[in-house]
């Protein structure tokens, strides 16, 4: 027998033996840890059907609903509410859960058993580099330690900077002789506002996208915001293709990523060469970061990671806020009355501070309810770093521990968890901010993640969103929805964050 023939004959046998031994070891571990099997979502052998489902829901602008509908299907199949199951997508078996105990285990109590994993890095590092949202292990710990000091209370409460950009945004909402604005795409204004604010806070220089939009061509439009948006779209598509992420790579994606990097590199180079004795007039995130590291690639990566969090999340939250206020005029009136009472009028504002925004209970209840119904990150996932378990979801009643093999992705749906009737009541899908008057929440409410990787910019986002809402409600006493967002089904757009699928368009009446 030739050597080649011997290898060809023996290799499959050895692989089979190895597979059987591995399966036996996993079975032994599962028995030792009292684990029971979980239900498997029906599909083809490769899991092409689940990718098609996700892409179809994405096209229909209802991607967060795909997990909810799968849970409904599994619940009907198992004859019980099924909060944890498994599905296959392009050859990768993924565990899905909307169970708070499991989410707590993944994010906190068993933190070292899980990491972001290669799938996150493969999807996002092309655009964002190696930053806090793509790193694991020691590099993540270093990123966290590097960034946390930049989010002190004094630095996130620079409301003078915010006011300058709010006033620019207000120019995009002119009123006529009747006191009404024309139909205004306020969602686009919010994305310009948060991009302008974030770039000034991070880089020390704003892209001034709102001023350019208002100039009728007199001020050239900066391409960076559009390029950053398109780069996120590519990152989201890569995530859906699992191990075949490299398919989502073409001339356009490479050009966009290079352009985004070059844009930020310009500010990094200027900061690294700046005279340390010449301090800017206000706090600049990049300058603070440059005192801790001189690595230009690390600086660029961390800036892009924080830009993603600081710009898109707040703009999306504000868009959802206005959409829900237009659909709930009675609540709009009540909230505006509170804001006028606590913060004064638009022309004579008073006491709009970080502390007062945070202590305004009706405003915080409103933001909590918006984030419950439309969490800005509707789902997330981690990958097991070792053979481990989840606390619950297995067995015939779904109450036994679940065995998780090393390398298995665990996806948790914040969107579904925030709308579970058994947790939030029969009105879980309804907008009811007063539910927050007495409610204290735990792991069933995670708009900003939890555990060691909880969002360090949480207060920055809530402060900015609260401030913008106060100023808008001080100025306008009535909202009218226009177009698809005014009534009917609400569409949802998901790249890396969740925003209204149809841009929020409103007419607003200025308080006399």
Automatic annotation (TrEMBL):
The keyword Cell division does not apply. InterPro entries: Cyt_P450 (IPR001128), Cyt_P450_CS (IPR017972), Cyt_P450_E_CYP52_ascomycetes (IPR002974), Cyt_P450_E_CYP52_fungi (IPR047146), Cyt_P450_E_grp-II (IPR002402), Cyt_P450_sf (IPR036396). It comes from the Eukaryota. Heme binds at residue 455. Keywords: Heme, Iron, Metal-binding, Monooxygenase, Oxidoreductase. It holds the Pfam family p450. PROSITE patterns: CYTOCHROME_P450. Its cofactor is heme. SUPFAM superfamilies: Cytochrome P450 (SSF48264). Belongs to the cytochrome P450 family. This is Cytochrome P450. It comes from Aspergillus ellipticus CBS 707.79.
């Amino acid at each position: 027998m030739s050597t080649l023939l011997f290898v060809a004959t023996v290799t499959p046998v050895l692989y089979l033996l190895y597979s059987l031994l591995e399966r036996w070891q996993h079975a032994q571990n599962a028995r030792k840890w009292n684990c029971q099997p979980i239900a498997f979502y029906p599909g083809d052998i490769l899991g092409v059907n689940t990718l098609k489902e996700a892409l179809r829901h994405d096209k229909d602008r209802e991607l967060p609903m795909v997990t909810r509908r799968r849970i409904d299907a599994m619940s009907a199949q198992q004859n019980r509410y099924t909060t944890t199951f498994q599905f296959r997508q392009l050859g990768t078996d993924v565990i899905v859960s909307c169970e708070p105990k499991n989410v707590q285990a993944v994010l906190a109590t068993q933190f070292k058993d899980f990491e972001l994993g290669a799938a996150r890095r493969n999807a996002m590092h092309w655009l964002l580099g190696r930053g806090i949202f793509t790193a694991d292990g020691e590099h993540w710990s270093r990123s966290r330690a590097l960034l946390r000091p930049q989010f002190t209370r004094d630095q996130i409460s620079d409301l003078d900077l915010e006011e300058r950009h709010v006033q620019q945004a207000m120019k995009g909402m002119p009123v006529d002789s009747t006191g009404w604005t024309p139909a205004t795409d306020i969602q686009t204004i919010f994305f310009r506002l948060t991009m302008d604010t974030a770039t000034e806070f991070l880089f020390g220089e704003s892209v001034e996208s709102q001023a350019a939009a208002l100039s009728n061509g007199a001020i050239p439009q900066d391409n960076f915001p559009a390029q950053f948006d398109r780069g996120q779209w590519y990152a989201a598509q890569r995530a859906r293709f699992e191990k075949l992420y490299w398919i989502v790579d073409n001339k356009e994606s490479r050009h966009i990523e290079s352009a985004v990097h070059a844009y930020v590199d310009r500010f990094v180079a200027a900061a690294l060469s700046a005279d340390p004795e010449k301090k800017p007039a206000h706090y600049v995130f990049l300058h603070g970061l440059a005192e801790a590291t001189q690595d230009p690639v690390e600086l660029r990566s961390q800036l892009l990671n924080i830009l993603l969090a600081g710009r898109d999340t707040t703009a999306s939250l504000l868009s959802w806020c206005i959409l829900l206020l237009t659909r709930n005029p009675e609540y709009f009136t009540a909230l505006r009355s509170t804001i006028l009472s606590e913060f004064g009028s638009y022309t004579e504002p008073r006491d709009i501070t970080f502390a007062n925004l945070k202590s305004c209970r009706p405003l915080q209840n409103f933001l909590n309810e918006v984030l419950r119904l439309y969490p800005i990150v509707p789902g997330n996932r981690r990958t097991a770093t070792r053979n481990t378990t989840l606390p619950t979801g297995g067995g015939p009643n779904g109450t036994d521990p679940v065995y998780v093999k090393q390398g298995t992705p665990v996806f948790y749906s914040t969107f579904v968890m925030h709308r579970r009737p058994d947790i939030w009541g029969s009105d879980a899908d309804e907008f009811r901010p007063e539910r927050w008057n007495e409610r204290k929440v735990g792991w069933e409410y995670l708009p900003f993640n939890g555990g060691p990787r909880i969002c360090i910019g949480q207060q920055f986002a809530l402060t900015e969103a609260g401030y913008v809402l106060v100023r808008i409600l001080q100025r306008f006493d009535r909202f009218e929805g226009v177009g698809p967002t005014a009534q009917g089904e609400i569409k949802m757009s998901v790249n890396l964050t969740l925003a209204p699928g149809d841009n929020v368009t409103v007419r607003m009446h200025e308080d006399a």
